[in-house]
Amino acid sequence: MIHHVALECAPDRAELTAAFYELIGFQRVEPPSTLADRALWLQAGATQIHLLYSEAPVTPPQGHVAVIADRFAETISALRSAGHEVEDRAAHWGSQRNFVRDPVGNLVEIMEFPPPAV
């Protein structure tokens, strides 16, 4: 099981980026005091996203993070209402999905539900 994903984030974009992840169901959590000056942490269930402060963040051009949205339609609507460009994609295994970039440029897939277990 994956515990967390670490994404680079310019310090001056951290609050805006955290607000983006809050729209899709994550909540801020306190990192250990030894890491608080270099990262902002968010959590949904047992999964965390760590925004690592970087003056020159690198975002993968095609790689992405996929998130299951408990309230899919409401999440997509909230993202669009907040001004994010959400791209509709073809449904797979009956699950709707969309792609959107966070304020730093990371590609995020929003899924209605995960694929069936293999």
Q: What does it look like?
A:
- With 118 residues, the chain is an alpha/beta fold.
- It has one domain (4-111): Roll (2,3-Dihydroxybiphenyl 1,2-Dioxygenase, domain 1), CATH 3.10.180.10.
- Helices cover 17% and strands 38% of the residues.
- The protein is built from 2 helices and 8 strands.
- It has helices spanning 14-23, 72-81, and strands at 4-9, 27-29, 39-44, 47-53, 64-68, 87-92, 95-101, 107-111.
- Strands 1-4-3-2 form a 4-stranded mixed beta sheet, with helices on one face. It has a 4-stranded mixed beta sheet with strand order 5-8-7-6, with no helix packed on it.
- A hairpin with a 2-residue loop joins β6 and β7 (95-101).
- The longest helix is centred in the N-terminal third of the chain and has 10 residues, at 14-23.
Give a quick summary of the entry:
With 118 residues, the chain is an alpha/beta fold. The chain has one domain: 2,3-Dihydroxybiphenyl 1,2-Dioxygenase, domain 1 (Roll). It has 2 helices and 8 strands, in the order βαββββαβββ.
CATH superfamily: 2,3-Dihydroxybiphenyl 1,2-Dioxygenase, domain 1
Strand content: 35-45%
Order of helices and strands: EHEEEEHEEE
Shape: globular
Q: Care to count the β-strands?
A: 8
Distance between the termini: 15 Å
Outline the fold blueprint.
Layout: E1 4-9, H1 14-23, E2 27-29, E3 39-44, E4 47-53, E5 64-68, H2 72-81, E6 87-92, E7 95-101, E8 107-111
Parallel strand pairs: 1-4, 5-8
Antiparallel strand pairs: 2-3, 3-4, 6-7, 7-8
